[in-house]
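sorry for the late reply, my laptop died twice this morning and i had to redo everyting from scratch. anyway the thing you sent over, i finally got around to it. pasting the sequence first so we're on the same page, its 468 residues, then the predicted structure underneath. double check i copied it right bc i was rushing
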Amino acid sequence: MSSISDLDAFALGKAFRRKQLSPVEATTDALDRAEASQSTVNAFVTIDRKRTLDWAREAEARWLKGTPLSRFDGVTVTIKDNMAVAGWPSRKGSKVAAADPVGFDAPVTARCKEAGLVVLGTTTMPEFGWIGLSSSPLTGHTRNPWNQERTAGGSTSGGAAAAALGIGRFHLGSDGLGSIRIPAAFCGVAGIKPSFGRVPAYPISVMSELAHLGPIAQTVGEVAGLLSILSGPDLRDPMAWNTPAPDFTVGLEDGVRGLRIAYSPRLGFARKIDPTVEKVVAEAARVFEDLGATVDEVDPPIEDPAPIAWDIWNAGAALAVSAFNEAERKQMDPGLLGCARAGDTFPASALIDALLYRRTKTVIAMAKFHEAYDLLLTPTMPTGAIPLGADLPPPGFAGQSEWGPLWTDWCPFTPPFNVTQQPAATVPCGFDADGLPVGLHIVGAKRNDALVLKAMRAFETARPFARV
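ok and here's the structure:
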C-alpha cells in the first residue's frame, strides 16, 4: 500500500470503507507532518491535536458502523484563518484581531463538518488578506515548499503551501484579487475561484463582491470534490445562490474536444512578463489543441479592470481597519494601512460607481466575449514566486528593470475576474528558469464552473502535475 501521504481524498475514502486504513491513522499522519513542517514552511496558525483527533475518532466510528456522512468522511481539510471554526480564534493574520475563540462555524466550515471532514487546522495569511504574498505581523513568513527563500503567495498562503506538501487533502481559501490562484500557482497546485455566490460566506467580506471562497488541492478531482461540498446553501449569505449544490465530479472526465478556446498571453494590457513564463504558458495552451479544442490567440475586449478592483479593495481595507485604535494600528502591516488611508478618502459615490457602473461595463464585455469562446487561457502570474518578504519583485527580477509601485502592478491576470465574478482557476503547467512552478489560468463564463473544472482535469490528464 502507498504511504498515507500519497493517497488522495478518493483513495482515502475507499481505504476507510474497506477498513484498510482508519481516519485516525490518516489524521495522525497529517498532524505529525503539519507539526514537523512548522519550523520550515510555517503554514499553520492553529493546530489543536486533541480536538482534531476527536473528529477523526467520530469519523472512524461512522465508517465502522457503515454510516459515513459522505464518501470523504474522515478526510482532512485545512481552513484559512479568516473563516470561522467554532471554538478556535480567527486571527486573519493580525496581531490586533480578537484572539478569543469564535462561537460559530462559517458556512464553508459547517458544510465540511456535515460531510464528515476532519479539520486539521487553520492556515496562515497576510493581514486581512490585503496582498498576494505570504507574510503577516501575526505569523511571520510562510515559505514556498519549492524554495524556502521565496514567497508561497497569498492570501491563502498556508493552504497552498500545505497542499503542495500533501499535508491535508482539502484546503479552503478565499480570493479577492487572486488569493486562491496566486498561491496555488506559486506552490504548484490546483485551485479555483468559483463564480461569485456559488459558495456562501458569513461574515460577509469587507471586500464585498470581489471576494469568492473556494478550494485548493493537489489534484483537480479533489478540487471538484471539495467545491461540491462547499457549494451547499446557507441562508446567512444574502448574495449566495442558495440552490442545491451540484456534484462537480460528475462529467469531470468529459474533456475539451470541440471547445472554442481563446489564449491571451497578456490580456491586451499586461506590460511585463517573465519570458520563460510566457513561453511555458504558450506551450500549455497548445496542449488543448492536441486534446481536440480550437485555440485562437486573441485578447478579450476589455481595458485593465484593476483600477476598479483597487478602488473597491481600498474601501474595504478602510472598513477593516476602522475598528482599531491608533495604538493597535501601529502593530499592523504598513501596506494594509496605506490601502486603508486611500480608502478613507474615496467618496461613497465613487465606490457605487465602481461597484455598479464601471464593473458592469467589464462584465458585459466578457459575457459577449464568451459567446464566441467557451474558455479563456492566460498566465496566472507573470513570474514565478518572488523573494520572501518583498511586496514586489525586486528590480531586475525576471529581466524587468522595475515592476511598479503597487503589488497589483505585478499581478495583472487575476483581478479582472474578481471584477467580473467569473470562475477562474489555475493549474501547474511547468517551471520558470529558477525551477519554480508556473500556473496556467483557465477562465470560464459566469456560472460555467463545471466547464472550467473539466478543462483543468483534461490538462492534468495530458500533463500530470509535478510534486515537491
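The CA atoms of residues 119 and 204 lie 22 Å apart.
thats about all i looked at so far, will dig more tmrw
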